[in-house]
């Protein structure tokens, strides 16, 4: 039997705010037939100049800029679009706004987020035990790579997780450690983390597809 017949159809809406390199990783994996059954149905950006919009259009994926006036209005429009485009799962691929608990509880285990730090099993808790046994803080919110540098830890990483109302605290789908190197700046560390994320996001979508 061919892959297409055994893999469940999964229509993704990607929410972005910027570069969209993780969206690109998904588009490339789909094009290379590494994610049979998976399709990016729609890309929505809250920023007009998000480069990810161009990436989507280049792949002939519907892409739109939805200005963020109020959270309530924005979410109402997104809910309509998700229905119109028959979306099964939402991927927050570098989406830099906090979404409401009401929106999140509408789609339990149907919203996936990428966070550039290590989140423990179950998602909650303030510490993470790395593979070498050291205990590091969980860096939540904005500038997580910078937080890791400032804390002086030797290892950080990235986690793909299901979204729950508490920020960056949902159960991980997959994650990977990334070592911090001498002389790292926020930019160099963020870039090294992104390289890992490009694999993780594809892995996470595959795992999710097998679960639903
Ligand atoms: C990624 O590193 C992602 O983990 C991070 O933004 C970057 C987006 O990159 N997300 C957050 O910090 C969310 N709190 P991209 O636009 O190139 O995919």
Could you walk me through the main structural features you see in this protein, from its secondary elements to its overall organization?
The chain has 212 residues and is α/β, with parallel strands linked by helices. The protein has one domain (2-114, 159-177, 192-211): 3-Layer(aba) Sandwich (Rossmann fold). Helices cover 36% and strands 23% of the residues. It has a seven-stranded mixed β-sheet. The longest helix is centred in the last third of the chain and has 26 residues, at 186-211. It is globular and about 45 Å long. The mean pLDDT is 96. The site of glycinamide ribonucleotide has 14 residues, from α2, β5 and α7.
Strand order of the largest sheet: 3-2-1-4-5-8-9
The amount of beta strand, in percent, is 15-25%
Task: Determine the CATH topology.
Answer: Rossmann fold
Fourth CATH level, the homologous superfamily: Formyl transferase, N-terminal domain
Query: Can you count the helices?
Result: 7
- CATH class descriptor name: Alpha Beta
């Amino acid at each position: 039997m061919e892959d297409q017949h055994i893999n469940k159809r999964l229509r993704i809406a990607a929410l972005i705010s910027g570069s969209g390199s993780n969206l690109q990783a998904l588009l490339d994996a789909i094009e290379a037939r590494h994610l049979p059954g998976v399709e990016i149905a729609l890309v929505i950006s809250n920023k007009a100049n998000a480069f990810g919009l161009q990436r989507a259009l280049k792949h002939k994926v519907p892409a739109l800029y939805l200005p963020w006036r109020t959270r309530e209005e924005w979410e109402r429009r997104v809910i309509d679009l998700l229905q119109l485009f028959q979306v099964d799962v939402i991927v927050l691929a570098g989406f830099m706004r906090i979404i409401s608990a009401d929106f999140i509880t509408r789609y339990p285990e149907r919203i996936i987020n990428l966070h550039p730090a290590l989140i423990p099993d179950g998602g909650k808790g303030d510490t993470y035990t790395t593979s070498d046994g050291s205990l590091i803080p969980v860096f939540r919110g904005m500038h997580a790579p910078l937080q890791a540098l400032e804390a002086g830890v030797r290892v950080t990483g990235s986690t793909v997780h299901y979204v729950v109302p508490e920020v960056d605290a949902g159960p991980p789908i997959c994650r990977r450690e990334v070592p911090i190197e001498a002389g790292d700046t926020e930019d160099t560390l963020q870039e090294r983390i992104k390289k890992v994320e490009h694999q993780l996001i594809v892995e996470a979508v595959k795992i999710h597809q097998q679960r639903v």
